[in-house]
Amino acid sequence: QVQLVESGGGLVQDGGSLRLSCAASGRTFSSYAMNWFRRAPGKEREFVAGISWSGAITSYADSVKGRFTISRDNAKNTVYLQLNNLKPEDTAVYYCNGAQYWGQGTQVTVSS
Predict the structure, then answer these.
(1) Buried b vs exposed e over 30-45: b needs ≥16 C-beta within 10 Å?
(2) Nearest-angstrom CA–CA distance, 60 and 68
(3) Is the per-residue pLDDT at 25 higher than 80?
(4) Band of residue 45 on the pLDDT scale cut at 50, 70, 90
(5) Per DSSP, what are the bridge partners of residue 38?
(6) Spatial CA neighbour of 38 closest among 78, 91, 79
(7) Strand arrangement of the beta sheet that strand 68-73 belongs to
């Protein structure tokens, strides 16, 4: 059993930055590839970024490449998502995911 808890969301201005964290409980955290997804108002959930269990391989949605960075610290059971140069269209609830496990989400709001 793994529990995921996101934090770090908030309200920022266009061009601002945030760092999201996803704290995982459970001894098998380091064996999971981890992902960030988001759901904007009125839209379906979409993939944002993913990272392999070791952190060696990352992938990003085209809409966030060059602006967002995913990383992980297996010693701290935590996955991060650095969000830079935020745009109003990045406004969404951001969710952490690993295998079949999901966090409750953290709200990111970008004002223009």
Answers:
(1) bebbbbbbbeeeeeee
(2) 8
(3) yes
(4) very high
(5) 46, 94
(6) 91
(7) 3-7, 18-25, 78-83, 68-73
Nearest to residue 45, comparing CAs of 105, 109, 2?
105
| Other residues' Cβ atoms within 10 Å of the Cβ of residue 112 | 9
Q: Is the pLDDT of residue 29 over 90?
A: no
Q: What is the mean pLDDT of residues 91-109?
A: 96
User: Is 79's pLDDT higher than 90?
Assistant: yes
Max Cα–Cα distance, the chain, nearest Å: 42
Dist. CA 21–CA 23, nearest whole Å: 6
Long-range CB contacts (< 8 A, 24+ apart) of 72-78? Answer: 72/34, 74/29, 74/30, 76/23, 77/23, 77/24, 77/25, 77/26, 77/29, 77/30, 78/21, 78/22, 78/23, 78/24
Quote the CA–CA distance of 74 and 55 in Å, as a whole number.
Answer: 9
Q: Please identify which residue in the block is written with the tokens 């064996």.
A: 31
